[in-house]
Amino acid sequence: MKKNVALLLFDEVEVLDFAGPFEVFAVTDELRRYETFNVFTVAQEQRPIRARHGLSVNPDHDFASCPAPHLLIVPGGFGTRALLKNEAVLAWLRTAAASAEIVMSVCTGSVVLGRAGLLDGLRATTHHECFALLREHAPRTEVVETARFVDNGKILTAAGISAGIDCSLHLVARVLGPAAATTTARYMEYHGMAEGLKN
């Protein structure tokens, strides 16, 4: 059965935070005859989302129509500051995360997970300029400042922006094996894969 990979979108989301993981999982699915991942975007409302630097993106689903994700990806960006006060988004994240197999954040997406209480008792990382922000909103979390990403099993957090590609390739290796991740990275001509597959 194909696994649903849901990427959360919101205004002022960092483009590569969601586009990098989207590309990794979509390319992996393509290279495996479209039999592995159903990759889609979701937002609180199904309307055009204005990402960082003005990119307009149309989410595939709103919260009401979103298929239950097996893999839930929460990107970061300046727009996460508003999410920290958005109880509807935080409540949806708690519900979706409870039934998901894997939850992954990129950049300050980890701060949102922390605010939702999903990082309590875990180790986590974020963008190098936002460690204090993560500590503020995830006081029961060990903040790791030296890792490209942190894998707690069900919940993973990636550092800033391009680290989301590394963490996504790591997840592909976990789910489908290292050969699948290597094939995807080669197709993408992504030479950071060797570092990305380290934990």
The Rg value, from CA coordinates, equals 15 Å
Going by CATH, the architecture would be 3-Layer(aba) Sandwich
Task: State the distance separating the first and last CA atoms.
Answer: 27 Å
Low-confidence regions: 194-199
Shape: globular
Number of strands: 11
Helix count, DSSP H or I runs of 4 or more residues: 8
Write the element-wise H/E pattern from the N-terminal end onward.
EHEEEEEHHEHEHEEEHHH
The biggest beta sheet reads:
7 strands, mixed
Number of domains: 1
- Percentage of residues in strands: 15-25%
- Mean pLDDT score: 95
User: Percent range for helical residues?
Assistant: 25-40%
CATH topology: Rossmann fold
CATH class call: Alpha Beta
Question: Can you describe this structure?
Answer:
Helix 1 packs parallel to helix 6, helix 4 runs parallel beside helix 5 and helix 6 packs antiparallel against helix 7. The chain is α/β, with parallel strands linked by helices and 199 residues long. It has 8 helices and 11 strands. A hairpin with a 3-residue loop joins strand 10 and strand 11. It has a single domain, classed as 3-Layer(aba) Sandwich (Rossmann fold), CATH 3.40.50. It has a 7-stranded mixed beta sheet, sandwiched between helices. The longest helix has 17 residues.
In short, what is this structure?
The chain is of the alpha/beta class. Helices cover 39% and strands 20% of the residues. It has a seven-stranded mixed sheet, sandwiched between helices.
